[in-house]
Write a structure and sequence with these properties.
The chain is of the alpha+beta class and 318 residues long. The chain has 4 helices and 27 strands.
Length: 318
C-alpha cells in the first residue's frame, strides 16, 4: 500500500491512499485532498500510481512543487519517504509499505533534428543564436534568435523578437533554418543556478503619479545603464508587477517564486474591465521590444500560463 501523508509540524494530520486513479491536491473544494494554505493553488498537484511507481505532476501552480527541496519541471516519480512541498509551507510525504523501485528521473532537452544532436536544459534559460553565450549556436542570424524559459511548474515557453508562447514536449518548432524539438530525456545533473541578482541586476522605480501620469525607470546596476518608460500602459504594467514583487518580498515569499501576478489582475489594472489576453500579449511584446533596444535582456519579464512577473533585484514604488 502507498499513502500520501499531509504533515503539519512534522506530524501526520491526514493520509490518503494512492491508487491508479489520480488524486488532485489543492485549495479548491473539488480536490480529493483539500489543503488550507494560501500559498497552495486551487488545483496544484496530481498524484497517481502506475504499478509500483508513484508519479506526481504540478498543475501550473503559482508557487511551484518541490521534491526534497528540488523543483520539478515535468512529471516526476516519487519514492517512500520523499517529501513534497507545495508552495512555501505545505508538506506532503510518500509512505510505501512495499518496495517501490527506482524510476529514472526525467529532464528536458532540445533536439536538433537535422544535425541529430541533443542539448540538455540544465538551467531556467536556454539561448539559441549566433552569440558567444548561446547554448545552441547557430552560424548565422541574430546573436539571440530565441530564448527558452523554464518555469518551476514544468511549463516551457519560447520567446523571440516577434512572439512568445508555450512549447510542448514532442512537438517540432523552428528557429532560423533549424527544426528543433523539446524532448524528455534521462535527467542530467543540473547546472549551478545563477543567483537572480547576478542574472538580472535590474532595479525598478515606478509611480502612477508622475508629472504626466504613470512612469517607470529601469536601471541596470551592473552596467549603469538606465531607461525611462513614460508610455502610459507600459509604465502602468511595470508599476503593477513591481508592486506585486514588493508585496511578496514583504510577505517572505522566496526570491525564485516572488512577483507572479495573475493575468486578470494585470488586465484590470491596465484597462479596467476591457482588457483581454491578446491586448496583454501585445503590451508585453511592445514593452520587451522597448527594453531590448535600450540594452536590457527583455526576458526578465516572464510569462507563464495565467501569470506574469518581473525578475529584478530591487523595486521602489511611489
Amino acid at each position: 500500500m502507498v499513502e500520501l501523508l499531509l504533515l503539519r509540524s512534522g506530524e501526520t494530520v491526514h493520509a490518503i491512499r494512492v491508487e491508479e486513479a489520480a488524486i488532485h491536491v489543492g485549495r479548491a473544494p473539488g480536490n480529493e485532498l483539500v489543503v488550507s494554505d494560501a500559498t497552495v493553488s486551487g488545483h496544484h498537484l496530481m498524484v497517481w500510481r502506475e504499478g509500483t511507481t508513484v508519479w506526481i505532476k504540478d498543475l501550473a501552480s503559482t508557487n511551484g512543487t518541490f521534491i526534497n527541496e528540488k523543483r520539478i519541471r515535468s512529471v516526476h516519480p516519487v519514492r517512500d519517504g520523499d517529501r513534497i512541498r507545495l508552495g512555501t509551507t505545505c508538506v506532503l510525504q510518500v509512505r510505501a509499505d512495499v518496495a517501490v523501485p527506482e524510476a529514472p528521473s526525467r529532464g528536458l532537452a532540445v533536439e536538433d533534428l537535422r544535425a541529430g544532436t541533443r542539448f540538455p536544459l540544465t538551467g531556467d534559460r536556454f539561448a539559441i543564436g549566433s552569440g558567444p553565450d548561446a547554448d545552441l549556436r547557430l552560424p548565422d542570424g541574430p546573436a539571440r534568435a530565441a530564448t527558452l524559459i523554464l518555469h518551476s511548474n514544468g511549463e516551457v515557453r519560447i520567446g523571440t523578437d516577434d512572439s512568445e508562447g508555450p512549447l510542448t514536449i514532442g512537438v517540432d518548432f523552428t528557429v532560423g533554418d533549424r527544426v528543433l524539438r523539446l524532448a524528455e530525456v534521462e535527467e542530467v545533473q543540473a547546472a549551478t543556478e545563477v543567483p537572480q541578482a547576478e542574472r538580472y541586476p535590474y532595479r525598478l522605480s515606478a509611480t502612477l503619479e508622475g508629472p504626466f501620469g504613470a512612469e517607470a525607470t529601469m536601471d541596470d546596476v551592473a552596467s549603469g545603464r538606465s531607461h525611462k518608460i513614460d508610455s502610459g500602459n507600459r509604465a502602468v504594467l511595470l508599476f503593477l508587477l513591481g508592486r506585486r514583487f514588493e508585496e511578496d518580498r514583504l510577505r517572505g515569499v522566496p526570491p525564485d517564486e516572488r512577483g507572479w501576478c495573475p493575468d486578470d489582475e494585470v488586465m484590470t489594472g491596465v484597462w479596467g474591465r476591457h482588457g483581454d489576453e491578446n491586448k496583454l500579449n501585445v503590451l508585453l511584446h511592445r514593452l520587451r521590444a522597448e527594453l531590448r533596444v535600450a540594452g536590457f535582456d527583455p526576458w526578465f519579464i516572464e510569462k507563464k500560463q495565467r501569470f506574469v512577473r518581473l525578475r529584478v533585484t530591487e523595486v521602489t514604488i511611489r
